[in-house]
Design goal:
Belongs to the bacterial ribosomal protein bS1 family. By secondary structure, the protein is of the alpha+beta class. 18% of the residues lie in helices and 38% in strands. It folds into 6 domains: 70 residues, OB fold (Dihydrolipoamide Acetyltransferase, E2P); 71 residues, Nucleic acid-binding proteins (OB fold (Dihydrolipoamide Acetyltransferase, E2P), Beta Barrel), CATH 2.40.50; 74 residues, Beta Barrel (OB fold (Dihydrolipoamide Acetyltransferase, E2P)), CATH 2.40.50; 83 residues, OB fold (Dihydrolipoamide Acetyltransferase, E2P) (Beta Barrel), CATH 2.40.50.140; 80 residues, Nucleic acid-binding proteins (OB fold (Dihydrolipoamide Acetyltransferase, E2P)); 82 residues, OB fold (Dihydrolipoamide Acetyltransferase, E2P) (Beta Barrel). Strands 3-2-1-4-5 form a 5-stranded antiparallel beta sheet. Strands 8-7-6-9-10 form a 5-stranded antiparallel beta sheet. The protein has a 5-stranded mixed beta barrel with strand order 11-12-13-15-14. Strand 14 and strand 15 form a beta hairpin.
Length: 559
């Protein structure tokens, strides 16, 4: 009976041992530290199995291991037995499995996880997330580029998991996302306490070409360059420095984008409020050239008040010159106020108005009919341009070059650079035009020659040349030409060869043309006029008397 009982007990124990699950390789099991020696912890994982784990696997990055005999720990069972009959176990792999379970839950619920940066790798850093190693890209460390990550190493802080793949063992985290979130909360709180028009203190954080970013205590506002001062500011660095504390006014708050616009000039009085009183129309003031463009120059009258001198108001004489050739930046100039538009904050200024109109000065110094001397500046198809005082020109038209020659012929005698004399014939100040005459320097021989002569007059001329088409004659030095058809009333006598050079003949004046300076002369017209006069005096052909009788009687009466 005893033997039977012993057998039953053995079977029960055997059955019990089979019912107990042997731990599977590749799982996490609990064990007890039974010894610490030679830098290792000996752990009893049960089932009559013991294994060894390096003490460093029990330490967090940068910390000393904290493990003592009797501690219960979880380890990862790699193999049940190795060549020495020991279990192959790992605390690090156990922590990793535990961490992955925890991190996957956090990733799914978009929760933050705690970790510590412990190493630097290409493109970023490694982060210990309590057993699992994650990658922190350089761009995700902070909201701004980090030059020195030393202070961040080993410090426990929150991270956001951006991506994870357990099969590949990849985890990507971000510190920047946490900072931006907390910064957004802080911005919202600060912005909530700000109101438009409020005056606050801020610290200049950054300076750009277009303005400066000012820290208002956790939130940045933009102070645009045009809102720094009433005067023109070429670059913000002229009046601001990084780190400087300044007073600014909140101009506008965009609740959606959290953008804040700031102003400094709004805290100062607007100089434009007194512009119309300080700068009456036609008053002259000193100013400083601040900017030069293709269309004119900007002149600062006082801080915050600038006016434009349009290119057309810069010089009386320099019409097609770039403003930069008349004035230079920072130059002090006298300007006249021409127009003020306070609504548009514009002042129109004149530079030339502060100097006398050179055409007025010329008219005073050189009245009409006075003689001037100047250099030929240009020769055109319609006349000469002569340089006069104060950079102005006068023009001698082709018709005013010579009494005797045609203008096209007379202008051939002049060259650029020649110094000539001329008579002032007209000054048009409004049109800025001066007319000169060279021929007026001498008398008009034609006018003198025909003085007293009228159309229809009978004058005596001398033959100077015989030509096929007629004869050339001269009267008091003025030459004219009598065509063949005007040589006689009778066709048979319309022969130039019947005349000789030096002959004196009576002719009738048919035309006087001052422009061409020619007399129209005709022997035929004289003969017809004489015949008409004789008929009127002695009868007509209708009375029965012949023409011969009439002319004979007329000739007889002359005797």
């Amino acid at each position: 009976m005893c033997a039977k009982n012993a057998m039953d007990e053995f079977e029960a124990l055997l059955k019990e041992s089979f019912e107990i699950d042997t731990p599977e390789e590749g799982t996490v099991v609990k064990g007890k530290v039974i010894a610490v020696e030679a830098g290792q912890a000996i752990i009893d994982v049960g089932y009559k199995m013991e294994g060894r784990v390096d003490l460093k696997e029990f330490a967090n990055p940068g910390e000393q291991p904290n493990i003592n005999v009797g501690d219960t720990v979880e380890v990862y069972l790699d193999r049940v037995e190795n060549a020495r009959g020991e279990a192959v176990i790992s605390r690090e792999k156990a922590r990793r499995e535990e961490a992955w379970d925890r991190l996957e839950k956090a990733y799914a619920s978009e929760q933050r996880v705690e970790g510590a940066i412990f190493g630097r790798v290409k493109g970023g850093f490694t982060v210990d997330l309590g057993g699992a190693v994650a990658f922190l890209p350089g761009s995700q460390v902070d909201v701004r580029p980090v030059r020195d990550a030393g202070p961040l190493m080993g410090m426990k802080q929150p991270f956001q998991i951006l991506k994870m793949d357990r099969r590949r063992g990849n985890i990507v985290v971000s510190r920047r996302a946490i900072l931006e979130e907390s910064r957004a909360e802080q911005r919202a709180e600060v912005i909530g306490n700000l109101t438009e028009g409020q005056v606050v203190d801020g610290v200049v954080k950054n300076i750009t070409e277009y303005g400066a970013f000012v820290d208002l205590g956790g939130v940045d506002g933009l102070l645009h360059v045009t809102d720094m001062a009433w005067r023109r500011v070429n670059h913000p660095s002229e009046i601001l420095a990084i780190g400087e504390t300044i007073k600014v006014q909140v101009i506008k708050i965009n609740k959606e984008t959290h953008r804040i616009s700031l102003g400094m000039k709004q805290l100062q009085s607007d100089p434009w409020d007194a512009v119309e009183k300080a700068y009456p129309i036609n008053s002259v003031h000193k100013g400083r050239v601040t900017n030069i463009t293709d269309y004119g120059a900007f002149v600062e009258l006082e801080a915050g008040v600038e006016g434009l001198v349009h290119v057309s108001e810069m010089s009386w004489t320099k019409k097609n010159v770039h403003p930069g050739k008349i004035v230079s930046t920072s130059q002090e100039v006298d300007v006249m106020v021409l127009e003020i538009d306070s609504a548009k904050r514009r002042v129109s200024l004149g530079l030339k108005q502060t100097q006398r109109n050179p055409w007025e000065v010329f008219a005073e110094n050189h009245p009409v009919n006075s003689t001037i001397e100047g250099e030929v500046k240009n020769i055109t198809e319609f006349g000469l341009f002569v340089g006069l005082d104060n950079d102005i020109d006068g023009m001698v038209h082709l018709s005013d070059l010579s009494w005797d020659k045609r203008g096209e012929e007379a202008i051939q005698s002049y060259r650029k650079g020649d110094v000539v004399q001329a008579v002032v014939s007209e000054v048009d100040i409004e049109k800025e035009r001066i007319s000169l005459s060279i021929k007026a320097l001498s008398d008009d021989s034609f006018t003198d020659a025909v003085d007293g002569v009228k159309r229809g007059s009978i004058i005596t001329v001398a033959v100077t040349a015989i030509e096929d088409g007629g004869i050339e004659v001269e009267y008091n030095g003025a030459k004219s030409f009598i065509r063949r058809s005007d040589l006689s009333r009778d066709r048979g006598d319309q022969r130039p060869e019947r005349f000789q050079v030096g002959d004196k003949i009576d002719v009738r004046v048919t035309n006087i043309d001052p422009k061409t300076r020619k007399l129209g002369l005709s022997i035929k017209a004289r003969e017809i006029a004489e015949e008409k006069e004789a008929v009127e005096q002695y009868g007509s052909s209708d009375s029965g008397a012949s023409l011969g009788d009439i002319l004979g009687a007329a000739l007889k009466g002359e005797k």
